[in-house]
Amino acid sequence: MKALSAELKEAGNKYGFLIQANDPYHFYPIQTAFGGYVFGKDESGAWNPEDVGITSEGTIAAFNWLDSMYKEGLLEAGANIDSGLLLSAFQNGDAAMVISGPWALGGFRTAGVPYAVAPIPSAEGPGRPFLGVRGFMINAFSENQLLAQTFLQQIVATEETLKAIYDRDPRPSAFLPLAEVIEDVDLLAFMEAAVGDPYAQHPGDEFRLEGVGRCHGTGQQPDTGSGGSDQRPGPDRSRHKQ
After folding, report:
1. What is the pLDDT at residue 194?
2. 202-235 per-residue burial string, b: 16 or more CB within 10 A, e: under 16
C-alpha cells in the first residue's frame, strides 16, 4: 500500500492512501494486519480483557508503518482528517484508497466516483476490521417488556420488515435469510471482506482505544491510558437472534 501510495502521489495525486486521524476503529484493520490486537481471546473465542494488546509487538509495528507514511510525506500530520473530510477527498479524487464501510456507498454512488471494494491488504497476516451489527433492545425499566418483545419477534423480526429496512439503507444483513439473497455487488464485496472481529465492549475500552487514537498523527507509540472512541457499524454476518 505504501509503494502504491508513493506511485500515485508522484503521478500528481494528493493522497494515495488516506485514513481518519485519531480513530482506533478504522486503524484496527492495519493493527491486525501487522499482528497487533486490542484484546486477546480466551479458549471460547470471547474477548479476554485481561490480555491487552495495545503495546504488543504487532501494534507497535502497525504504528511504525503509519508513522513512516507521515515521515515520507504520504500523509499529512496535523491534517485532522475526520470521516467527512476522508469521504470528500475520495469522492473528489484527492484520495485513491480509504478504509470505510457500507455506510459510505451512498455518497460514492451519488458522486459518481469510480470505486471498488477490496479486503484490507496483508502485512504479517490478513487485516481484520471491527464488525458491528444494528439491532433492537428492550428497556429493562419498561412496563411493557412482554409487549415490546412480542412486537419485535412478530412484527420486526420478519423477512418483510427487515427487507424494508434493508431497502431504505442497504447494508450487509445479520439476518441470514436476507443476507443469502443480497445481489448488490458492493455489499457482497463487503461481506467477503468482513472477516474480522466483533467490536469489543468492556469497561475501560474507551480509555484503551483513545490511547491508540491519540497516537495516529503524533509519531508516538501507543499507551494504555485515557479516552473514548468513534464507533461506526460494520458488516456482520452472524445469525439474527430474537
Report:
1. 82
2. eeebbebbbbbbbbbbeeeebeeeebebeebebb
pTM for the structure as a whole: 0.77
Structure confidence at residue 212 (pLDDT): 53
CB 223 within 8 A of CB 55: yes
* SS3 label, residue 91: helix
Cell 445469525 belongs to which residue? Answer: 239
Cell numbers at 17, concatenated:
492512501
| Nearest CA among 70, 51, 74 for reference residue 200 | 51
Amino acid at position 236, single letter: D
Contact criterion met (CB below 8 Å) for 102 and 22: no
Q: Which stretches of the chain drop beneath a pLDDT of 50? A: 207, 217-242
Q: What is the mean pLDDT of the chain?
A: 84
Strands 39-41 vs 47-52: parallel, antiparallel or unpaired: antiparallel
